[in-house]
User: Fold this.
Amino acid sequence: AQSVTQPDIHITVSEGASLELRCNYSYGATPYLFWYVQSPGQGLQLLLKYFSGDTLVQGIKGFEAEFKRSQSSFNLRKPSVHWSDAAEYFCAVGSTDSWGKFQFGAGTQVVVTP
Amino acid sequence: DTAVSQTPKYLVTQMGNDKSIKCEQNLGHDTMYWYKQDSKKFLKIMFSYNNKELIINETVPNRFSPKSPDKAHLNLHINSLELGDSAVYFCASSQEGGLRTQYFGPGTRLLVL
Assistant:
């Protein structure tokens, strides 16, 4: 069965420290991978996506993610977090055999401390 | 300019009532979606329309009925509201559907009392 797992429900990080959010997927077909961010009371905003090509993807707000097929992972990273990065982060996966049906992970809540 | 907009933003209603949520996108996309986000933030797709045609219809009670009057609009009507319908409902749109990036609206927070 297809699945998306975000192992960390909650992460606390100090402002200026690095951040890594994990995403693992299980898909039969070639996965198309996305990271979205949801600020409190807001909708989801796309951070970055991976369809093919270079496995290291750059996104907005200084985020990047690396696709590792051998580990079925698409982890999101930021070298130095800002207080405004406090939000809920969702990994999403689509595939060529599931038209439009993105499957979302359960989300990781990031708290940024001073 | 708001790309994907939803109305109302908040909706508080009694059990048994019928309510509608409206969604409009000005991105020129031809595919629109409805998602439900539960209290644990889990996001699950409900419906998708492509060029006014229903493409995705997940396991959703018949009380939920989407309607797409044109490509820019996708409304969600809910009959006989139940307590379990309380959630945040997100509309999204994409170009041509499939694996295109989906752009989300701000959400409608529904509370059924």
